């Protein structure tokens, strides 16, 4: 509805001969058919019986004759319509129904070109749809007339049938683009993607075509397809709905299998570039064999690829390349394990030493004796078992490690305080304080959290792993011994003691070596506190 005094519907804006009773006729050829567009302009006075608003306005009618029922023609009409609304920018005024279920127009009056978001979205949808339809002509232009590769056709040769492959690629690319554009067209006005006034416009008005008016005038909202009136904005879905239907019909025979179309596009691309890709295949084969030959102790991987000459193959592709699937699967497993292998950064660090504090517990069982009248010198012989745990962290290798040390040792004992009478912890006890020192012959076993990964690589590349080795240790410290008095002359003396000692292992454990890199462990020293019970 156009209010009095608004000049957007003047004869200059619409192109008609005069504003009241003027007409303009244009003829265009769309899809080979002549389409006549008749624009009529009529001033409706405020006192006219049909004017329930009692405000004078200009009614513009756009009538189309001979419109072809095709997607391209409908899109051309839609484009003309939305562009005319945007450029003419007519004034509108509507009355919303008070019913709570009726759609509400927001705002209720103003200029149509103020709906910038809605107009922009519709223009994009029309542009996408037009490009979609254009892609159908690409497929028609590359339709294959000569059968190739089937029972009645000639064998396909990528060196001589490049044009066939190029047409196949053009078709597949067009189909992929069509599916993408069709999706965009639908999503542009999908209410689930919209908010605010635009969503209200689409659901309440754009989707309402020639239905009963919500303004309470007993008339219709919108207009019949093909006729544009003052309610044209509400009949947009007549064009949109029919356009989408035509688009769906145009691409229905392509199906909706997007993945299959993508695969076809990839295959076509390979065929178009087959000659160069075939050359790349040969270069890749040479690179693989060269790389494998340089890997030490990897004879089992040498046959991952192979080639044979087949004189019966088509010209240009006599050399056939083969992949040993079992060996390839083995390489895939190796790659996964190498990703977790601590030496994947080998070469970055030439040498590195890292330390970590260890905590543990130990036990030793043996026999001791003292010599001479004063019994200041003595010796002990024992077996021992130590367990320690540590987390060792470095810039390229982190692991939790456990170490077991087990073996036999012998220490010399010397008391500089010997059997001194004391009432400490009881009457008539004897206190001895002294030193000890000796050696131990043992074995050392290491286990860290990377053992499984290291072992996997070891099986493939014959890397060296040693979790155990011989160990030689020095042992020294201070001791205190408290002997209780005998109850009978034949009873052994119950003794309790405390020792503060230091063990020093001297031999590294060559735990792991891989492609020139080595991992060595050694417990540098161990400070311990022992409780000793003797009898």
Automatic annotation (TrEMBL):
TM stretches of this protein: none
Region of interest (Disordered), ranges? 1-29
InterPro entries per record: OMP_Helicobacter, SabA_N_adhesion
Give start-end positions of Polar residues composition bias: 1-20
Every copy of the SabA N-terminal extracellular adhesion domain together lies at 13-164
Query: What protein name does the entry list?
Result: Outer membrane protein HopS (BabA)
């Amino acid at each position: 509805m156009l209010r009095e005094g608004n000049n957007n519907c003047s004869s200059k804006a619409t192109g008609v001969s005069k504003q009241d009773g003027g007409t303009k006729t244009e003829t265009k050829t769309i899809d080979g058919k002549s389409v006549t567009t008749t624009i009529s302009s009529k001033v409706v006075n405020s006192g006219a019986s049909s004017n329930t608003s009692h405000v004078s306005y200009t009614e513009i009618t756009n009538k189309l004759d001979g419109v072809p029922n095709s997607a391209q023609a409908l899109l051309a009409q839609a484009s003309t319509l939305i562009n005319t609304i945007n450029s003419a920018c007519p004034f509108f005024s509507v009355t919303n129904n008070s019913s709570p279920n009726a759609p509400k127009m927001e705002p209720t009056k103003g200029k149509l070109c103020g709906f910038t978001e809605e107009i922009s979205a519709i223009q994009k949808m029309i542009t996408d749809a037009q490009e979609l339809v254009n892609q159908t002509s690409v497929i028609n232009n590359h339709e294959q007339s000569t059968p190739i590769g089937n029972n009645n056709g000639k064998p396909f040769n990528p060196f001589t049938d490049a044009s066939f492959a190029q047409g196949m690629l053009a078709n597949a690319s067009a189909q992929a683009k069509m599916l993408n554009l069709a999706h965009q067209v639908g999503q542009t006005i999908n209410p689930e993607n919209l908010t605010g006034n635009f969503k209200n416009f689409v659901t309440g008005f754009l989707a309402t075509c020639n239905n009963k008016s919500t303004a309470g005038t007993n008339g219709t909202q919108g207009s019949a397809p093909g006729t544009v009136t003052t309610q044209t904005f509400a009949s947009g879905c007549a064009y949109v709905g029919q356009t989408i239907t035509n688009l769906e019909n145009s691409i229905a025979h392509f199906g909706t299998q997007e993945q299959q179309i993508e695969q076809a596009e990839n295959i076509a691309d390979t065929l178009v570039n087959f000659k160069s890709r075939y050359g790349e295949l040969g270069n890749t084969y040479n690179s693989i064999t060269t790389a494998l030959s340089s890997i030490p102790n990897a004879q089992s991987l040498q046959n991952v690829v192979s080639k044979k000459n087949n004189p019966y193959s088509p010209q240009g592709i006599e050399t056939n390349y083969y992949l040993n699937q079992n060996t390839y699967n083995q390489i895939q497993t190796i790659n996964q394990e190498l990703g977790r292998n601590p030496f994947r950064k080998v070469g970055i660090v030439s040498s590195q030493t890292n330390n970590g504090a260890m905590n543990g517990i130990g036990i030793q069982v043996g026999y001791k004796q003292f010599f001479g009248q004063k019994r200041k010198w003595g010796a002990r012989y024992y077996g021992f078992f130590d367990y320690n745990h540590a987390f060792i962290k470095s810039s390229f290798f982190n692991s939790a490690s456990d170490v077991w040390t087990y073996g036999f040792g012998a220490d010399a004992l010397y008391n500089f305080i010997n059997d001194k009478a004391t009432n400490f912890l009881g009457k008539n006890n004897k206190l001895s304080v002294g030193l000890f020192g000796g050696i131990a012959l043992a074995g050392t076993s290491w286990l860290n959290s990377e053992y499984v990964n290291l072992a996997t690589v070891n099986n493939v590349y014959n890397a060296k792993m040693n979790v155990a080795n011989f160990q030689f240790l020095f042992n020294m410290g201070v001791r205190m011994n408290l002997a209780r008095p005998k109850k009978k002359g034949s009873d052994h003396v119950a003794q309790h003691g405390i020792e503060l000692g230091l063990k020093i292992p001297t031999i590294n454990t060559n735990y792991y070596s891989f492609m020139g890199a080595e991992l060595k462990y050694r417990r540098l020293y161990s400070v311990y506190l022992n409780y000793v019970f003797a009898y």
